Amino acid sequence: MRERMSYIVEIGNCLVSSEIITEYFACDYQACHGCCCIIGDSGAPMEDGEEKLFEQEYGGYEHLLTPEGKEALKQQGFAVTDRDGDLVTPLVNNEECAYTCFDCDGNCFCAVEKAYYAGTSKFQKPISCRLYPIRVSTLSNGMLALNLHRWQICRDAFKKGEKEKIPVYKFLREPLIHRFGEEFYSSLEEAANSLLASK
Fold it and tell me: Is position 128 within any domain?
């Protein structure tokens, strides 16, 4: 295994791990079948305001939900607070995300995202899901920390990204711009060019 060295790149109010620039990632659905929606001890992290978006767009994705998912939302609401005090998506029997749907082969998908691409929902899915494997946390001084998260179930995505030479920040260009803006992404590209040129 190659040695990893991480640095911090400061862009505006964000502290970005250099691993987001130097590491590779590309989702490999054929390998994982969407298991990130059904494995874990908590739901997907949600930002303030996303709960209202789930509620507002419910009519556009309700038909895709499982009966168990609908019941979980009815009983728990569109978001819950986990044991760490974070706002997350509800789970069905402490297993899959309530917003999950399955095809006839048992493959897992996000019902909200399917509705978004079908044009029946204006909300795609939580930005934390779109940004994975980047995790965003708020520091005590109010700055945001962007770090690379490594999850065993995504090992094939890291392998695919490395094989195809797709850096994490390039794979996540669209959600990074959606969350942080064009100016942030341009600065991130400049930092990447500078960092990689120094190697």
Answer: no
Are 79 and 42 in contact, with CB atoms under 8 Å apart? no
pLDDT in tens, 68-93: 999 999 999 999 999 889 999 999 98
As for how many domains the chain has, the answer is 2
Question: Cα(101)–Cα(35) distance, rounded to whole angstroms?
Answer: 12
pTM of the model: 0.88
Q: Token digits for 164?
A: 């195809």
Judge contact between 15 and 144, C-beta under 8 A.
yes
Which residues have a Cβ under 8 Å from the Cβ of 147 and sit 6 or more positions away? 17, 19, 20, 134, 135, 137
Q: In which residue are the tokens 């060019």 written? A: 193
Strands 144-148 and 14-17: parallel
Q: What is the pLDDT of residues 111-155, one digit of tens each?
A: 999 999 999 999 999 999 999 999 999 999 999 999 999 888 889
47 domain residue, yes or no: yes
